[in-house]
Amino acid sequence: MDQRRIAEVLDALDDQIRSGGLIFTKLQDLKRGVLRDLLVVRPNTLSGTRRGILDDFVDWASGGTPSKSNAQYWNGSIPWVTPKDMKSALLQRTADSLTSRGVSAGSRLAPEEAVFIVVRGMILAHTFPVSRVPRVAAFNQDVKAVVPRGDLLPEYLKYWFMANADTFLRLVGESTHGTKKLDLPDLKSIPAAIPAMHEQRRTLSMLHTLDARIGFETDLLQKLRREKAGVLTDLLSGYVRVPQETAS
């Protein structure tokens, strides 16, 4: 492969990566608008919507951290959720895990229906992390487990938190040590409008379709970046060589 051909391949990949990045950004912007329209604005126009404060619709649980010096508490089969894990709305794995003894000694289990939100940490200066774990999980003191009651679907609650992220961020204060935090009384008193079950399912169907498109574009963008990295690695390792007369 000569130098000109290598440059053409890299330029083509760069163009596709830029294009994919623009599409991804537009879809993320679209999702923010759709979330607000479907979960904040639209419920107030529907009959059958229940109105109140968030505490009317959910239960709250606080977690903790067992002693890290006791090996019997750690590396078990129970996921242990902390803010550093909550980089996506669907949390498939956590960096650390507990044994049942570890949970009993200093943490707490949340059911599969729980939605996890960060309530303490510097990330709250700019981001309100929300995640669901598709199984029973433990969690630390910087996270609250929020469990829906009655006719509130867990997945709908997750998206509701995401749609209202700006509201939560406006409530962020500081501890005496300067750490960002959200106080439980403030969380409980946030106004909430929850539509009937069939409307929740309709909303989730639309959001899942949008998430599938975002997921497709994300996978495509990652594939293009891997391809570019592979070409560059081949060049640097000498697997693909530029002819001497071309390189000179």
In brief, what are we looking at here?
The chain is of the alpha+beta class and 248 residues long. It is 45% helix and 19% strand.
Low-confidence spans: pLDDT under 50, at least 5 residues? 242-248
Helix content range of the residues, please? 40-55%
The main sheet orders its strands as: 2-9-6-7
Number of strands: 12
Topology pattern, helix = H, strand = E: HEEEEHEEEEEHHEEHEHH
CATH fold-level name of the largest domain: Adenine-n6-DNA-methyltransferase TaqI, Chain A, domain 2
CATH class descriptor of the largest domain = Alpha Beta
Architecture of the largest domain, according to CATH?
Alpha-Beta Complex
Q: Give the DSSP E fraction (strand runs of 2 or more residues).
A: 15-25%
Rg, alpha carbons = 23 Å
Major sheet size, sense and barrel closure: 4 strands, antiparallel
Query: What is the overall shape?
Result: globular
Number of helices: 7
Give the name of the CATH superfamily of the largest domain: DNA methylase specificity domains
Characterize the structure shown.
It is a single chain. This protein is of the alpha+beta class and 248 residues long. It folds into 2 domains: 3-38 and 205-247; 50-194, DNA methylase specificity domains (Adenine-n6-DNA-methyltransferase TaqI, Chain A, domain 2), CATH 3.90.220.20. Helix content is 45%, strand content 19%. It has helices spanning 3-41, 100-106, 154-163, 165-170, 184-188, 197-237, 244-247; strands at residues 50-53, 58-62, 74-81, 96-98, 109-110, 115-118, 130-132, 137-139, 143-148, 173-174, 180-181, 191-194. The strands form 4 sheets. Strands 2-9-6-7 form a 4-stranded antiparallel beta sheet, covered by helices on one side. Strand 10 and strand 11 (180-181) form a beta hairpin. Helix 1 (3-41) packs across helix 3 (154-163) and helix 1 runs antiparallel to helix 6. The longest helix has 41 residues, at 197-237. The chain is globular, with a radius of gyration of 23 Å. Mean pLDDT is 89; it is low at 242-248.
